Amino acid sequence: MLLPAFGCFPEVHGHRGCRGLRPENTLPAFREALRLGVDAIELDVVVSADRQVVVSHEPWMSASICRLPSGAPIPPAEARQHNLYQLPYGRIRAYDCGLTRHPAFPEQQPWPASKPLLREVVADLENLTRQLGRAPVKYSIEIKSEPAHDGLYQPPPAELLALVLAELQALQIVPRTTLLCFDKRILQLARRAAPTLPLCLLIEDERPLSEHLAMLGFAPAVVGPDFRLLTPALAAQLAGQHIRLVPWTVNEPADLRAVLALRPWGITTDYPDRLLALR
């Protein structure tokens, strides 16, 4: 069985580091999550014009959290004009994405921060892990990909995957990494290109699990549903197929307790401190 043994606590996955506490997908968020004691760092990656693997949820500068190099806010209607796939990383780094508190997270502490490279994040966390004397952290890396974005906000799927896999291999973190994606094309390619790498199918709609798996063509190691879709029946269905359950993004204490009752393999949360307090 892939369920944790009765009484065992699931893995704590810090969503975008710890978005409820620090600016998402930034070094301050990842460092704080590591200090709190997460088991896995969850982050998102996109690709720049010069084919660097950049840590970012959107393939553009979000008007909610980012500022222009001048320090001025980005008008929401113009956010997608700041397309990371059309900007070399040197220009991406000039934007600040940490000083503006996300409006949905009042506890978040603003911090000057740019969008880091994946290699920068891993090097920093591996060093901090040694300083803290703790076990190596795992990585849950979501490749941001949508068919409608091909050629506009991202390279073709095969190239996108190849860039990310090359980075993981160079960083020597493949044994501690799970690759996440909503885009089934990426997971299908990854299964052939890296057959030993655990893959996670992310789900955010109410289509039955059987349909998702039929479209994917295989049973992934992990399924990550929006926690609001999670039911005892779905949890049992995944357990019956030996698929690990790691729902997202569970933040409120009552929701955390309800999800814990279903004995998931892991829980992805913006507030790892809240989840760790229940350990």
TrEMBL record:
InterPro entries assigned: GP_PDE_dom, PLC-like_Pdiesterase_TIM-brl
Cite the GP-PDE domain residue spans from the record: 10-279
What start-end ranges are recorded for coiled-coil regions in this protein?
Answer: none
Check the record and name the SUPFAM superfamilies matching this protein. Answer: PLC-like phosphodiesterases
MF GO annotations: phosphoric diester hydrolase activity
Q: Name one Pfam family in it.
A: GDPD
Q: Which GO terms describe its biological process?
A: lipid metabolic process
- PANTHER family xref list: GLYCEROPHOSPHODIESTER PHOSPHODIESTERASE, GLYCEROPHOSPHORYL DIESTER PHOSPHODIESTERASE
Name of this chain's protein: Glycerophosphoryl diester phosphodiesterase
Organism for this UniProt entry: Hymenobacter actinosclerus
